[in-house]
What does this fold into?
Amino acid sequence: MNPMEVNALIEQVSTYLPDDEVAVVKAAYEFASRAHEGQVRKTGEPYLEHPLNTAMSLVDFHLDADAIAAALLHDVPEDCGVPLEEIEARFGSQVAKLVDGVTKLNKLSRRSRTEDTKSTVQAESLRKMLLATAEDLRVVIIKLSDRLHNMRTLGALPREKRRAIAQETLEIYAPLAHRLGVAQVKWQLEDLAFRYLEPRSYHRIARLVAGKRVEREAFIDEVSQKLCQELDKAGVKAKVSGRPKHIYSIYRKMGKYDALGKEFSDIHDLSALRVLVDSVSDCYRALGAVHNCWRPVPEEFDDFIANPKSNGYRALHTTVMCQGTTPLEIQIRTHDMHRISEYGVAAHWLYKEGKAGKHSVEETAWLRQLGDWREELESDDFLESIKTDVLVERVFVYTPKGEIKELPRGATPLDFAFRVHTDLGYRCIGAKVNGRLEPLDYVLKNGDVVEIMASKGDRGPSLDWLNPEAGYVKTSHARSKVRQWFRKQERGQCVEAGRQIWDKELKKLFAGSVSVEEVARLLDYVDADDLLAALGSASVTASQIALKLSGDLEPVGEGVTVQPPRKVRPVSINVLGVGDLLTRLANCCHPLPGDKIVGYITHGRGITVHRGDCLNIINEDDKERLIKVEWGEVAQVYPVMIQVDAWDRVGLVRDISAIIAEERVNVTELSSVSHLDDSVSLHITLEVKNGVQLSKIMSRLYTIWNVVSVMRKGE
It folds into this structure.
């Protein structure tokens, strides 16, 4: 091992870490040196070169001592047989957790390489899986640094293995670095992967770029001097430098130019200018100076300060015409924006609070960063991206063919089976997880390989699967499919039974004057089969249908808008202490269990149940038709409509739906009305158990950003 490289590492960490943490890095290096003694890489160099170079990359991010120690030790458990317990005993639980996290990511990476990851969806799933598996963001940064050094030494491997690793790097790790905003790592991974995947194209572009270097550098020097003079006149303190395009970036641009019939000589923006200033206001003043110098190209201006990219990138981009016909791209950003552009989320560790210092584990924990990122990046889009793609409680598991399936945390093999295919869920009789038989209520973990054992015939699900106490299914998708199967099986029997009841009782009663289809339409059923199924399942009786068709419509009070009638589920209502009387819930106020209620005796339609504060009841002149009613045993859910008024924004409906789903409430209808002032009114019909559940949902909806009011319709 070259002692100069070791000394360089220690010297660099000493610039921002206190002495006690530098000592931890030294101890980790010495331990790794002993563990890897005698081991040699495919390149012929000592194995310790790899962890040392990985650690050196982390120094650029100013990561803490635990992260750098973990980088030095990340291959010790697998390659040297040293148990994690020993690492924890020597270096603490945090270093051990980081090493364990990198080890797990290495296993996932190897598994993915043996499967086909060419699918865009599959690649994105693996990127999400890598992030979700890494409970600490530092694990991902270490893994990216590990991959970067492996790519720099890839030439020692056989051709097929080189191509497989390069393909994985281009599809998985470079986009992952981009997603985290680590541009410095992203472009290096892209260029290195491109070099091994398309060596002829890589070297051809490299030669073309080198051939224009002298001409390009002279051009950049000239325009830089002119811009510096203009910035001085405007009183803007700035650092101006050239920014060469990377080879893979040029290759992609050449692909676009080929489609337009252009050639490499037509690409004038092989270099760009970067202007670094002290403040946001200086960015816009510098933009004015640029446009004073040269004529801007129409539609080639982007304000990523006002509208940051999803990964937190912020800058002003403009393209101007220099020397008459030469386009030049200019990026303008503050020094802080540049730091975040180069190091992404890892920029949190760089010069925190403007000084070197000791960073606690809490400060570098993934969830703790969200608040800091919001302040540093001021990008709601970035925050939303992190929340929806990374921090949701998900697990990522493999099919036997290597496809990745994303499920909620806590999901079981049955949930997995229904996610793969509904029919597979219906025929599931058992499951193997990582090659071992596991019960159907086994809780899946990240990286599990799940194989479903299915019956050959049409077996069908078990009713026990719907028992929440048994824990067989956790996802609403699987539960709905199981219920759907039973409804389908029962429906045919119910329709046949209902047809017999119709023929025996109702057909004679109506003497053929109306058909079953007409009756279904009058009673708001979807079709005749729905009415017959209700008859056959005793959801409605023949006498109730006769009463409903022979009665008058109930009166409606003035000033009250009645919503269109909808079919509601059966409820248990006691009238004067007696149940099983003909009752229905009023459509004007939608009473829920827990509400104070009053009965209204209709002509021939039994008793309609209203809320006690319903205007139809308050304004009723014939008080003798009001009767005392009370809720009986409640075992169903009831529809109620709420209105949510809010300022419109991206993600509003998703946030509302997430809260409703967390309360385990079903949404049967959702509509929206947009207003000219950028506000929106959402009308949502929920199926709730009682008023307490509804109040809880409404209270939580008030906490959503941009929500102005939440009200129950009919109030």
Q: What stands out?
A: Residues 348-392, 551-570 have pLDDT under 50 and may be disordered. Residues 83 and 424 are 40 Å apart (CA to CA).
